[in-house]
Write a structure and sequence with these properties.
This protein is mainly α. The chain has two domains: 49 residues; 108 residues, no CATH class. The protein has a three-stranded mixed β-sheet, covered by helices on one side. The protein is rod-shaped and about 110 Å long.
């Protein structure tokens, strides 16, 4: 940023003494370290701003941070059957008592949270190579930084 030639050019001729130049160089050391730290922070922030919580962008961000192209994000759960926990006496065929005029098939009323996908306890799956198992904390930290609040994920190693 400020080397010796720049300092001597900016000083007026009557102040260009060795003692004054050395004093200014000593004062500017802290300025250089602050500028270097700010410059590194700025470049890192500019990289992080380019990514958001969309699946492709989140996947690219995690791949870039972990230097691994094997990390994938899956958010299609159409082939996963929901798991239901119930007691043995609940595993019986449903018995209904009704009048003959009510012999139509029963209709069920349920809350939205009781739908099939609500039994899954995560919103997306992050598939990570088993070589990165030791860096799970770092992966979780980067995911929590970029993902939307309230979205849950599960890390699966392959």
């Amino acid at each position: 940023m400020f080397d010796e030639t720049t300092i001597t050019r900016l000083l007026p001729p009557f102040l260009r003494k060795d003692k004054m130049i050395a004093w200014l160089k000593a004062l500017l050391v802290n300025g250089r370290t602050i500028y270097a730290a700010f410059s590194a922070f700025r470049t890192n922030t500019n990289v992080c701003i380019q990514y958001n919580s969309q699946t492709a962008s989140l996947e690219a961000f995690i791949r870039m941070k972990m230097n691994n192209n094997g990390i994938n994000i899956v958010n299609d759960f159409s082939d996963i059957e929901p798991a239901f926990d119930f007691y043995l006496n609940e595993d019986q065929a449903a018995q209904y008592e009704f009048y003959l005029i009510e012999a139509a098939d029963p209709s069920y009323i349920f809350y939205v949270a009781e739908e099939a996908n609500a039994t899954l306890f995560f919103d997306f799956i992050v598939e990570v190579p088993s070589a990165l198992m030791s860096e799970e904390i770092i992966i979780k930290a980067w995911l929590n930084k970029v993902k939307l609040i309230g979205k849950r994920y599960k890390i699966v190693y392959y």
